[in-house]
């Protein structure tokens, strides 16, 4: 007969307590993210004031409209994914992630080459 | 001697002349019938004009002024019209009475509804005052207003987040480099590779800034759902708040007489609608009766009936009587109508005689034409038109035909006279294939009479099959 499932009690191990704390931390972070997202206008307002204050302190002649456009541009590009520019590094990266297939075709071509050389 | 062919030609000519005469007489008879029909129509119009002149409207005075013979009949129509009018007027009066009653009831219902509406308004003001002084209701209302405003903003923001995620996520899903690292679990505890492979993956991750991209990807994937869940929770809170506010309002309503007043107002509204419908229906019925009354006067159903009867009477009345009446009256119009009727009567009598005469002549001509057709047919059946068939020179065929036309000779007598003047043998008597003995010829002739030309061949073959010794 199988043993009944263990009932939780006050004597939890440190690992279990850490796991529970992880869950609680995750929930807190999610709540913070949600609050931040739902109060984004307020966040933008605070950012706008700070930027204008900074511009005033440094003597930068920016207008509130320019700051507004810059903030909007920042949030539009936030979380947007963009691949690196085309070039040798990008090509090499694609070769790396397809290394199995590249290796297979290379070996095949080498074997064919060897066979041709041997028959020649 | 005259050949059979020549006799046949003259007989055919006489037959065609008779047929042409019959057709011409038939055409003349048809034309005469048309003229008679026109005359009858003209007389009908004149009689109608006279009837309208003597009876321009259906009233007792006008009927009394008409002919004594038709006066009672027309008076019956007047009686029926007056009875119909009295009945319709009675119905209209009853509808008027009913409409007055419904209108009074409707006015009373509207007055009571106005009173109730004023009481409801006062009760609503009292409820509003009570709620305005209730501290909890005020607090909850303000909370609900703020919550609703916030909920509205949250819902708009949630839509923005959803749109942002739908716009940005495809780039992550279409990137082979990002998907390679993400599916391998790079930068998570599940990633197991070591050595060169780990080094290559780290290099690729640095190239595309994988850590930041992974955070953004997970943010875009999870945030819309989290935000929606939070909005659902806040909506439930708002609903709960509204339920508490409505509970307070319901309690205040129940304590006030508003519910009773609203129930009464609903009943009064139903009564008003019912009375309104009844009033509309009764008004429509009254209008129908009014229309019937107007139609009775304007369309003149009874007048048309009386006019028809009067017209029939005038048509059947002697012209002399009509003339006498027209001369007695001081107007000249009726004299003109009567003279038109008299002229058409003369024309009708004359045309009717012509039609009868022409029809009789047509019948006679048709009979003559048929008789000559019979003679020609029999002439050919007996093969009097054969090459060896001849007739005596003293055969006065024109005289015989003239006597036939005048009815002195019948078709059979004409045929006998022609047969008696025949000399030689008919073609059929010398034909070896068709030879028939004398007994057979008699039978052949008898059957030919019965069957006619159409079955001539059949008759000949039937007799030929027999053996006569």
Please describe the topology of this protein.
The complex is a heterodimer of chains A (120) and B (469).
Chain A: H1 14-38, H2 40-58, H3 64-77, H4 88-97, H5 99-119
Chain B: E1 2-3, H1 4-54, H2 60-64, H3 68-133, H4 135-174, H5 176-184, H6 195-208, H7 210-255, H8 258-298, H9 301-316, H10 319-328, H11 333-381, E2 390-391, H12 397-405, H13 411-420, E3 422-423, H14 427-430, H15 438-451, H16 456-464
Give structural notes.
With 120 residues, chain A is mainly alpha-helical. Helices cover 74% and strands 0% of the residues of chain A. Chain B has 469 residues and is mainly α. In chain B, 84% of the residues lie in helices and 1% in strands. Chain B is built from 16 helices and three strands. In chain B, helix 3 (68-133) runs antiparallel to helix 9 (301-316). Mean pLDDT of chain B is 84; it is low at 426-438 and 463-469. The interface between A and B is medium-sized, with 22 and 29 residues.
